[in-house]
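Encode chain A's predicted structure.
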Amino acid sequence: MVKRRSALVAWVIAPLVTLGGCATSSGVVAGPSPATETVTKSSGEVGDRPSRDAQVVEVDGYGISFELPKAWMTLDAKEVLDSSNPVFEEVAARMGMTSQQFVESIGASVLTFSITDRGAVRGFVDNVNSVGMSRSEFSDDRIKLQLATIGAKPARFEHATSAAGDVIRVPYRWRITGTTVHGVLILVDVGDAATQITVSSHAAGTADKLADRIQRSLRTTR
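Encoded structure for chain A:
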């Protein structure tokens, strides 16, 4: 149970941080998600140097890194979480936890947390976070179960290779407190463990483009 809750942190931290204290709107809900399917492909080759307009985010303890736009801000997630956030109660209840327990779980699990420099759109700030997870959680069925737990709707599953390891990529949509979050999960098999990078945005197209950049730039740091 503890491991499953830890893996869910990556999906729920984004709206908890960015919706709290913001005026949320109904947002625009995209059309129906395509039927869940699995696609296998290879990521493009990645050079040794980051792009000029990029910053490199390293996931400590898991030996991988990825690129984000240089202007994005990388924050300490522990400093921006607030247990009084009104969204906490709703999500914590779905997961069978108290708000305080959930805050503590997030603080212990999040490895990186970055936000866009462009501000909020429809009450949501685009962001990327990463968490570490056990190798056993690197599977389609575990991802489907975890998304179902919070009521998120996945699209097709893609399996790919990258310079950092095998990848599972899953776009999803999640309705929370009147706002629709468009996300992309990127799970990376690092051998004896896995890393989950979660892209969250106000728009599906924006989330996909950022996920493409992250996936192309994955590399090892060991």
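The first helix runs from residue 2 to 19.
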